[in-house]
Design goal:
Strand content: 15-25%
Largest sheet: 6 strands, antiparallel
Number of helices: 19
Shape: globular
Number of strands: 20
Amino acid sequence: MPGGRHARWTAGAVAVALAVSACGGGPGDRGSGADGIVSSSWGDPQNPLEPANTNEVQGGKVLDMLFRGLKRYDPRTGEARDMVAERIETTDSRHFTITLRTGWKFSDGEPVTARSFVDAWNYGAHVDNTQNNAPFFSDIVGYDDVHPASGSPRARTMSGLVVKDERTFTATLKDTFSSWPDTLGYQAFVPLPRSFFEDHAGWLDKPVGNGPYTVESYAKGSGMKLRRWDGYPGPDKALNGGVDLTVYTDNNTAYTDLMAGNLDLVDDVPAQQLRNVAHDLGDRYINQPALIIQTLVFPMYQRGWNKPGMEKVRRGLSMAIDRDEITRQIYQRTRTPAEDWTSPALGDQGGYKALCGAACTFDPAEARRLIDEGGGLPGGRVTLTSNVDTGSHRAWMDAVCNSVNNALGRGAVCTVNPVGTFADFRNQTTSYRMTGPFRSGWQADYPLIQNFLEPLYSTGGSSNYGKFSDKRFDGLVDKANRETEQATAVGDFQAAERILAEQMPAIPLWYQNGSAGWSERLSQVSLNQFSVPVYDQIKVA
């Protein structure tokens, strides 16, 4: 994607304690068997649930239940498999013909057609609609006409999208992009019904999609009730009666409710409970590698962090962080010290390689030398910022600052700036108001190395909230996207990643495992490669 389920930005479990009594209730209230309801913790999405405007995890969870796109990523392997698409054909990796399967419809009865996709993509791309994920469509011919870098749009639709008939449309890209079909499982590319355009406010209050669930009710800041759609035509029909998502502002509260029997599923076990979770839940606990990395991003739009020589300071700060100690003491093996800017879950063939090298190794003496050579910390201090409405962000920020302060030996030069909620934190990062390094939790949109690099670090990338810009990096990413052989493309992306090691626009901290705990009512609980519960496959006793 030229723009991270989001990407996706991760917040952890979040929302309002009062919502528990409103949406949760005891096990008897939630039914049993095939019609049983799963109650699960949730975080309030930052934005309205428009597919092209959602690039954080909490909103992505809902879209994954409400929609199916041309492709769907296998929950176990991450492989991009045809779903609504019957086939996607090309002879040159630039001109694509997409043919839809028959029988797909939205839950309001409207057929899913080629127009459903083309209209949705044009809406997502158009600058007037201010969609976060608009850059996902920037590879398509005509994008610059609907989303110019400045000035007014010159067209309403992208010329590279053409509807041929009810089941067929074509897409023409600006350049060759051999892995483009594999990106189409991301939620920005799902189809939209006419009600989205004709009654937009009504659709936002009660979204309509073509997935295995429908929305029964939605109270922003409190929760959402989803129910199985018995008319769903896809192969992955829901094995339960529905899902009640309850918003929590503290995942410790969610865990307490799980233990008390008031909640069925917590998909972000709080750090404070990691020592106890195996004893508490036994085999009702998952801890597995995921396509998630945590970094500290520098605000390159601040002169103090972007003047000549500051790349040494940024590298020095990275080397002042004792990742091994922090992940061992705080995260109990649910995090792994990062050695690059992607994820080991990609595998070697997918592009994972420990390219950060010495810059991600704890070395206090070298850290002090580099910071001094680079001119010192701006103003002699560094402040770390993150939301703290989950159980661990304050703990790791304090630990990172302790590590930096001890390594540099210059007193309390590193301090923390806790932000109360994820929504407030995101508003600050997306409006470029940061003055020092800030947390970025990146959950891949699809299992490609490109998704870890291009949206976060390319000039104008949709989630490049540090505003890093490097022409060499951009050129290598563009070259990789044009390659027709995966191995060659991966090599180009890794060459681009070496520039990150040189410039350090973001400090890799650790790779995050996906974790979840559940009640005795549930079985067949699993997480996909993005660490999101596969809700439709959960069974209720």
